[in-house]
Amino acid sequence: MRNRYKISGEYCLGILQNRTPGRIGEENNLHASVLIPLIREEDGSISVLFQVRSSKLPEQPGDICFPGGMSEDCETHQETALRETCEELLISPDTIELLGPSDYLQSGRLQVHPYVGWLHGYGYTYSKDEVKEVFTVPLQWLLDHEPECHEMEWKPSLPETFPFDKIYGGRKYAWRERKSTVFFYEYQGHVIWGMTAKMLEAWIRIIKGENTR
User: Fold this and answer.
1) Is 52 left (phi over 0), alpha (psi -120 to 50) or beta?
2) What DSSP line would sit under 31-45, residue for residue?
3) Which pTM value belongs to this model?
């Protein structure tokens, strides 16, 4: 079994030349996409549309989010964002003008890909099976107000079957702490937080020129 791969060391090292690195474990990722929807108001100003998830949903009921969801087989990230937005807001794809992608978010195994786009002629419709209500926040307000920030600490939760005897220190092993910043935007009684606020904050920094690549 040890001699299964009879190839030269030079060949093995040559594989690394001109290789684009990837993320370890990326093949196990779950992918979702959302749209950050923009609306042009009658006075010419720009607003961002948000939706409140239905209380009947099994996951994150009542949370504020952007329209979006999990990718289906053979879909691109952009196609997922468009399909989910049309399903949740009851609109057709030709009413959405995509502007481009924002930075994606990695949360555990889940990778969320945000896109930004105009909604043309939107009549504030939505699917009541998934959405409780929709509301808008002026873009200028988001540009003028920094989110409230709180630090969250993640600690490992290990089962009793974990082989503690195989690691130095066993059950007293000094696990590295994982911390993340949780953002909160509060606007007229609505609290935007979690992954939605994190993607929103990143996009706001991009259009401010503070997070360019």
Assistant:
1) beta
2) EEEEEEEEEE-TTS-
3) 0.85
Pairing of β 64-65 and β 46-53: antiparallel
Task: Classify 70 as helix, strand or coil.
Answer: strand
What are the Cα distances from residue 101, in Å, to 5, 60, 116? 42, 24, 6
Joined together, the tokens standing for residue 181 give 């910043």
> Which residues have a Cβ under 8 Å from the Cβ of 25 and sit 6 or more positions away?
109
Inter-residue contact 38 to 46 (CB < 8 Å): yes
Structure tokens at 141: 């307000």
- What is the DSSP pairing of strand 96-101 with strand 178-187? unpaired
CA terminus-to-terminus distance, the chain? 46
How many alpha carbons lie under 13 Å from residue 201 in its C-beta half-sphere? 19
Give the span between the Cα atoms of 6 and 49, in whole angstroms.
Answer: 59
Radius of gyration of the chain (CA): 22
> What does the alpha-carbon distance between residue 15 and residue 183 come to, in Å, rounded to a whole number?
42
Q: What is the pLDDT of residues 180-195, one digit of tens each?
A: 899 999 999 999 999 9
